[in-house]
Amino acid sequence: MNFFKERIKLNRNEFSGAFGDIGTDLPLIIGMLLVTNLQMSNVLIVYGFLQILTSIVYGIPMPVQPLKAVALLVISQKISSDVIFGGGFAIGIIMLFLTITGLINWLNKIIPKTVIRGIQFGLGLQLSLLAIKEYIPSDSYIGYIFASIGFVIGLILIGNKKYPPAIFILLLGFIYIIAFKFNIIATINISLPHITIPELKYDSIVSGLIILALPQIPLSLGNSIFATKQLAQDYFPEKKITAKGIGFTYSAMNIISSFFGGLPVCHGSGGIAGHYTFGGRTGGSTFIYGLFYLLLGLFFSGNAVETLQIFPKPILGVILLFEGIALILLIKDIITDKKMFFIAVIVGICANGLPNGYLIGMVIGTILYYLSDKWILKYFGKI
Which domain holds residue 89? Predict the structure, then answer.
């Protein structure tokens, strides 16, 4: 019993932290459900279960996230559920191979901290720009008004343990729903889930490997494994979390998810940053977040997928913006080192702006790190 008490605390700060990553997750989940034949009950229940599982395993806010490269490919190309399950299985097997062979540990040793900071910087920029360009303006001037109020609430209450900010930002979102989307609330029904168990096929695994796994793995190594491990060490140095351990849970989650009709998933530094920024300090925040999706899957998955869009995007954008800013600010511990800062900025620009930018940035940044300091500082000193 003490094992769970130490790892999972349930209080208002954990509740606030629980929704620190919803701005990233929920739109991707909805997007994939809208364009595929995925079973909504399976997706939500498996997703919630995996959140709860990782909350127990890690005892810190180590949330589960949809795989971003996979999600974008699925949404843009309307990929069938068989290929999605096959891709998730292939991703899990590849990561398991990298983990048990020790390749993850080897890569973690040769990729310097400044490159990881660059990846986090690039991801932070990406999330912040997404919030400002797409989420916050989505409901015209009303969206701007509510987003502005939410942002001010966040600024005032960030770090406040007595009045954690996400609770009040979410409350603002519910006021928005009642005021402008009450007609959608009236159509929501409580219903039991319809669960199906998919069959993994060889052809689907091969197709998923080529279409989904190969584009995803470089991003996963950079952000889901190395950047997540670094951020877990930054926030929770006493936990001794390793790249190998994250690799194991990453692979296990995708293998489990593919057999039960769930989405391909990962951990992510953005998820930890979001939960931590809004108050999460134990697995309790991830546990609560998992319960949220379990309840949706168990009792509300009989409704149309569109009902999941009821929560206002401008408010999700505020949460996403704080998550992005938290990631950007991690660069502060290398900002006084000219070489390190230069490399991190280059990596961040590549990650944010190039196709397969996380892989390209990781390779370029690592090469720059091992070059003679004189080559970099000779240029940087003139800036």
Answer: 2-332
